[in-house]
Write a structure and sequence with these properties.
The structure holds two protein chains of two kinds.
Chain A: H1 2-19, H2 23-32, H3 34-67, H4 73-85, H5 88-99, H6 113-138, H7 141-149, H8 154-183, H9 186-191, H10 202-211, H11 215-246
Chain B: H1 6-35, H2 41-48, H3 50-83, H4 89-96, H5 98-101, H6 104-115, H7 123-128, H8 137-163, H9 166-173, H10 178-207, H11 210-216, H12 226-235, H13 239-268
The chains are: A mainly alpha, B mainly alpha.
Chain lengths: 247, 269
C-alpha cells in the first residue's frame, strides 16, 4: 500500500497540486496558449479519427481471425500483438523506414499530419481486435442460423444479431485506443517532426514545458490528460458492469 | 453456421491482411533489411560503441529491478484485491489501471515533481540523505515500475478469482500458517499467470521511453537507456546504429511474444 502511494498516488497528486498553483486564472491562461490549444485540437481530432478507423478495421480483423480460415492466419494473429510489444520509439523508426525519406513505395508522410495518424493507428491496432476477438469466439452461431432460416439477409443478421452483441466489446476497445492515442509520445518523436501548430501533440507540448523549466504549465496540461485517462477508466468500468449485469 | 458470401469474405480478408501488412509487417521487415544492409557490419559497429553497450547494460539493470519489484508488489496487491475486503477497494482497483491509460510523459512529470532534488516534495529530503532519485537509476526504475505496474496484477487477479479459496481454507484448517498457505497452495496455482505477467512487464520495461526520458535526464553514457540511444543516434545521423539497436529491441519483443504464445496453452490446461 505504501509503495503504491509513493509510486502512483503521491506523484499524481503532485501534478494536480502543481497545476492548481496559479489558481483558476493561471490554469485557464496556460490552457489558452495558442500553441497548446493547437496541440490539443490536433491530438483530439487524430485520436478520434484513429479510433473510428480502428472500430471498423479492428472489427474486420477480429472477424477474419475468428470466422475465416486461410493460409497464414496464425501469422496475422501474432503480428497483431507486435505493436504492443514493440518499444514506441522503435515503432516510430519502423514506420519512418516505409513512410519517411527514401521510402521504397514513394510515399513521404514524415513530418505531416498523416504521420501522426499513422503512428497512432500503429500503436492502437491491437486494442479493438483483442477485445472483440474473444467475444466473437464465444458468440453462438445458432442465433445467426435461426435468423437466416427465418429469411433474414446477411446484412440484417450482421446489423441485428452480431453487432449488438459485439457493441460492448467494441466500446471498451475504442475507449482504450482513444486513451492510448491521446497519450502517445514515443512513436511520434521521430516520425512527426513535432512542428508547432502542425504536428505537435499534447504529450510533446508537456515535454517542451518541462524542458523549458515551466513545470506549472506542464502540470496544467498534464492534469487535463490525467482527467481524460480517469474518465476513460470510469467509463470502461461502467460498460463492463452493464455487460456483466446483462449476462 | 451461416456462410458469408465468397466476395464479401475475400474482401474482408484482403482488407484485414493489407491493413496489417502495410501498417506493421512491411515496416518491421524493412527495419530488419536496413539493419543487415552491409551484412553484420552495422550490428558489429553498434556493439563496439561504448555508448550503445552502456545503454544496453543500463536497460537490462533497470528492467531487471523493475520486474522484480513489480513481481513482489504486483502479486501482493493482486492477493489483497481478491482475498480481502477493505474500504476503497474499488477505487484502488480502478487506480491500478491508471498507468495503462496515462501518458508516459505525465508519469515522468509526476515523478519529477515529487522526487527532484531542488524543490521536490520528497526529493530534497532524500537528497540530503545522499539518495538521488531523479537523473539517476532509482528514478528510472520507479518510472519503469509505474508504467509496467498493472501488467502482472491484471494477469493474476482473474486467475485468483477463478481458483477460489477452497484449497487455501482447507490448508488453513489443517494448521498451515499464512506463509505456508501462500507458498504451497496459492503460488503454484497462479504460477503461469505470474510468469505470463513477468514476460509482459519485461517487454514493457525494456521498451519504456517517454517516462524514462524525462526522469533520467538523458545523460549520454550515464542515464541513457537503449530506447533513448535509438533516438539520439537517429538524430545524430548515425542511422545504421539506430537501426541496429532497434533491431535488438525488436528481437527482444518478438522473443517475449513467442514466450507468451508458448505459455498461453499451458495456462489453459
Amino acid at each position: 500500500m505504501i509503495w503504491f502511494s509513493l509510486l502512483v498516488l503521491l506523484p499524481l497528486a503532485a501534478v494536480v497540486a502543481a497545476a492548481s498553483q496559479g489558481g483558476w486564472s493561471g490554469y485557464w491562461s496556460a490552457l489558452q496558449n495558442d500553441q497548446t490549444w493547437a496541440a490539443v485540437r490536433l491530438t483530439v481530432t487524430q485520436a478520434v479519427l484513429v479510433t473510428l478507423v480502428n472500430i471498423v478495421l479492428g472489427t474486420v480483423i477480429a472477424w477474419v481471425l475468428v470466422r475465416d480460415r486461410f493460409w497464414g492466419k496464425s501469422v496475422l494473429d501474432v503480428i497483431i500483438d507486435v505493436p504492443f510489444a514493440l518499444p514506441t520509439i522503435v515503432a516510430g523508426l519502423v514506420l519512418l523506414s516505409l513512410y519517411g525519406q527514401n521510402s521504397p513505395i514513394g510515399i513521404e508522410w514524415a513530418n505531416t499530419e498523416r504521420a501522426v495518424t499513422l503512428a497512432l493507428a500503429f500503436v492502437t491496432l491491437p486494442f479493438i481486435v483483442r477485445t472483440v476477438q474473444p467475444v466473437l469466439e464465444e458468440l453462438d452461431t445458432d442465433v445467426e442460423e435461426a435468423a437466416a432460416s427465418l429469411g433474414a439477409s446477411r446484412a440484417t443478421i450482421f446489423r441485428r444479431i452480431i453487432l449488438p452483441s459485439l457493441a460492448p466489446a467494441i466500446a471498451a476497445g475504442a475507449a482504450l485506443s482513444f486513451a492510448r492515442a491521446i497519450s502517445e509520445y514515443g512513436s511520434l518523436v521521430l516520425l512527426s517532426g513535432n512542428r508547432p501548430f502542425e504536428t505537435e501533440v499534447v504529450s510533446v507540448r508537456v515535454l517542451t514545458f518541462i524542458e523549458n523549466g515551466s513545470n506549472t504549465s506542464a502540470a496544467v496540461v498534464a492534469s487535463v490528460m490525467l482527467a481524460v485517462a480517469l474518465f476513460v477508466i470510469v467509463a470502461l468500468d461502467l460498460v463492463q458492469r452493464r455487460v456483466a449485469r446483462r449476462w | 453456421m451461416v456462410r458469408t458470401s465468397l466476395p464479401t469474405r475475400w474482401l474482408l480478408r484482403v482488407l484485414a491482411v493489407a491493413y496489417v501488412f502495410f501498417l506493421v509487417a512491411w515496416p518491421v521487415g524493412l527495419l530488419v533489411r536496413r539493419t543487415f544492409e552491409g551484412g553484420f557490419a552495422n550490428l558489429a559497429d553498434a556493439l563496439a560503441d561504448p555508448q550503445v553497450t552502456g545503454a544496453l547494460n543500463l536497460t537490462l539493470v533497470v528492467a531487471f529491478y523493475a520486474v522484480v519489484i513489480n513481481l513482489v508488489f504486483g502479486v501482493t496487491i493482486a492477493v489483497l484485491l481478491v482475498r480481502y475486503e477493505f474500504p476503497g477497494k474499488r477505487v484502488l482497483s480502478a487506480l491500478i489501471d491508471l498507468p495503462l491509460s496515462v501518458s508516459p510523459v505525465v508519469v515522468g512529470l509526476a515523478l519529477l515533481l515529487v522526487y527532484n532534488g531542488r524543490d521536490g516534495f520528497l526529493g530534497s529530503a532524500l537528497e540530503e540523505n545522499g539518495v538521488q532519485v531523479i537523473f539517476s537509476s532509482p528514478g528510472m526504475i520507479m518510472a519503469t515500475c509505474f508504467v509496467a505496474l498493472p501488467l502482472i496484477i491484471r494477469e493474476v487477479v482473474p486467475v485468483l478469482h477463478e481458483i477460489g479459496d477452497d484449497q487455501e481454507q482447507a490448508a488453513r484448517s489443517l494448521g498451515a500458517n499464512a506463509r505456508q498457505t501462500f507458498w504451497r497452495i496459492t503460488l503454484p496455482s497462479i504460477k503461469w499467470a505470474v510468469v505470463y505477467g513477468v514476460v509482459l512487464s519485461l517487454a514493457r520495461s525494456i521498451g519504456e521511453f517517454g517516462a524514462v526520458k524525462i526522469v533520467s535526464g538523458n545523460i549520454t553514457g550515464r542515464t541513457q537507456t537503449a530506447t533513448l540511444v535509438v533516438e539520439a543516434k537517429y538524430q545524430n545521423f548515425q542511422q545504421p546504429e539506430a537501426y541496429a539497436v532497434s533491431f535488438l529491441l525488436v528481437m527482444v519483443s518478438v522473443a517475449c511474444l513467442v514466450a507468451v504464445a508458448i505459455l498461453r496453452p499451458q495456462r489453459e490446461q
